[in-house]
Amino acid sequence: xxxxxxxxxxxxxxxxxxxxxxxxxxxxxxxxxxxxxxxxxxxxxxxxxxxxxxxxxxxxxxxxxxxxxxxxxxxxxxxxxxxxxxxxxxxxxxxxxxxxxxxxxxxxxxxxxxxxxxxxxxxxxxxxxxxxxxxxxxxxxxxxxxxxxxxxxxxxxxx
Length: 159
Ligand code: PNS
Hints:
This protein is an alpha/beta fold. The protein has helices at residues 15-25, 47-57, 73-79, 92-108, 128-136, 147-158, and strands at residues 3-8, 30-36, 64-69, 84-89, 113-118. It has a five-stranded parallel beta sheet, with helices on both faces. Strand 4 (84-89), helix 4 (92-108) and strand 5 form a beta-alpha-beta unit. The model has no long low-confidence stretch (mean pLDDT 96). It binds 4'-phosphopantetheine. 4'-phosphopantetheine is lined by residues 7-9, 36, 72-73, 101, 104.
């Protein structure tokens, strides 16, 4: 059985993330979306909020589950017996960083392979950072994030 992890911060989840989830779920038996609980990073959403939004958005995908992790990705992968890491590549600028992480993870845990999905062109420019910047100024984010999370993002900036 092939179990894969799609790790990320998902702060917030974007349409690009959902596209990668839907497409990679078709390639494996089980896909675990791993939400990084990074206490050092000043995140907009608590990890539980990110997990719950992702659960809501993927509820129609039977082989997708959502979990959170802290520490190293390879340790999380070992703990859930996953052997594949999925990452999305938007542009060549993503590549160097992603290559480094993939090679490091493979070096320390030989059983793990990273596969990259190229982002669909219509989502290639979307990043969580830009979504936050846009939303913080009251900009229209409906092109970038799934409908159910739009209001939750604005609500964070109203506080
Ligand atoms: O959505 P992001 O922030 O680009 O995701 C980055 C993520 C979560 C994949 C990466 O930071 C990660 O795996 N962090 C866990 C710690 C780790 O294992 N780092 C990689 C080895 S240096």
